[in-house]
Protein: Acetone carboxylase
Organism: Actinoplanes utahensis
Amino acid sequence: MVEEIAPQCSAKGCRATATWQLHWNNPKIHTPERRKTWLACDDHRPTLGSFLDARGFLREVTPFIAPESAAVS
């Protein structure tokens, strides 16, 4: 029997349940339509978002509702 693990925050060392999706891309290596996704808990959404935004990578932040709604990459 395989134990299911709830989607977790992408912040280093954080194991909190994800509540946000941060959609981003690096325009130097990704096509404009390509989106990568980081998951974030409420505590780390601002810091992960700031990290991506400072580099010009952040495209959109949306609530994380269900594992089916996120393709983490």
